[in-house]
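My convention is simple: the sequence line spells out the residues, with the fold written below as integer tokens. I include a record here:
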Amino acid sequence: MPDVRVVIVNRFVVGWLLFTVNMNGNGNKKADEMLDTSVSNEGEEPTDMNQVLDSHRSQLQHPESGMQDHREHQLQCDSTDTKTMIKEEVGRLLVEEKKSLIDDQRLREELSKMKQQLESDNGSRLDSLRDNLQQQLDTERRDSNFRHQQLETALQTMIKEEVGRLLEEEKKSLIDGQRLHVELSQMKLQLKTDNGSKLDILRDNLQQQLDAERRDSNSRHQQLETAQRDFSQQLSARSQLMIMQVLVVCIIIAVIAARLAPIDLKRWSRSQQEPAIEEYPPTVAFDKEVALKHFTNGINELQRAFPSQSLRLWRIIESATLPVIEEESPAHPAVILLVAAKGHSAVAECLAQRYAELVTESLNAAAHTAFNCETDAYSDPDDAKGQVDSELSGAFDAGAKAGLVHRLEKLPGPAAMIFYRFADNDNAPYKNVAIVLTLTLESTDAGSERDNVAYDELRKIWGSSLDVDKVEPLLSRIGNSVAFVRPETTNTLSENDC
């Protein structure tokens, strides 16, 4: 590849020659040929600057002979100046090239130093970073091992404590179980002993009574045989008094039989009264057990009859009613509020009807009563209150144990104050009864089925005619057992005769 400096000098000489030829006004064609020759020779590397000038000078010797000498002289002069200029320019370019080479070399050295310094700095930083990371990893590893040891120690301690506690509880339970087993064995032995002694006493009493009855029966039999012999003798002697004697004998036999029966029953009852009182519960308690069993079975049947109802509803009904059945003197009546969404009041009324029938059958009571508030919705509140009072009091006085009040939302506020008396927790006039109230909401959805839904509905209905200090105590009396009734199918209602 040609040297850059030679190419520059070559182009400079060609330019100067073109300028000289143009100044003389001749040799345009020759100058073009020289330019072509110069351009074509740029790819070569002349060995000397004089050779280049001589080649150009030889090309200019072909013009006319008249001008040759003048041109040669001018060319020599110009060649001298050109050489001088070219040398100066070449020198300057060489100096600049040398400076650029020195600058390039210095730049390379600086870049090499910077690169070495950067590599050294990066290496030291990487080493430092590696050392720091290694130290952090070692520290974290030590901390992790320490925490792991602490955790293992704590877990072992906790496990030991828990195992110790469980062992203590198991030991206590075993001791309690053994104690309970001993107590049960003692009670069983004592019960067997008591029952055995009572049975022996009862057996002796019965045996004594049987012996006495046997002796009495033998004496009566002997008396009867004696009477028969006397009667037969008298009959043979006195045939006319036969009929009368037969009647007398019949009367005697009837009297004896009448005397034997009450004596036997009285002795039997006296012999059984004392042990029966000690061993068996009274007749009333037996009836309560029968009533409780009947009620429980009836609740199970109602669950099957109304399959869409929630388990919460049955629990509320059962827990509210059991004290009335189990306790001899309940503290308060069972007041149940059945709440149904709009359009499903028939389900609540049907369920209340079946429940009232179940309570009546379980307690063997008189027929229940039912009052529909919708019939007195627009009547005078005092009259409606009197109607509810008369209906419930009359039924309960007649022996009924269940009362229904339907469509409570239709009852005026002042009339609803009657439940201050019937649903009172302490001073209710009838405590061994069940009162079922049905409420129909304005909404078609019961929402969350929480008690506040029913309370808000009644507050909205009665709040316009009753003060707050009257509404809230009333709600506390009738809202202790709130159960939400869910929709049932038409077939379910028809099967329950609703």
Summary: Strands lie at 334-340, 369-372, 402-406, 434-440, 482-485. The chain has three domains: 4-114, 201-279, 286-495. Residues 4-114 form one domain.
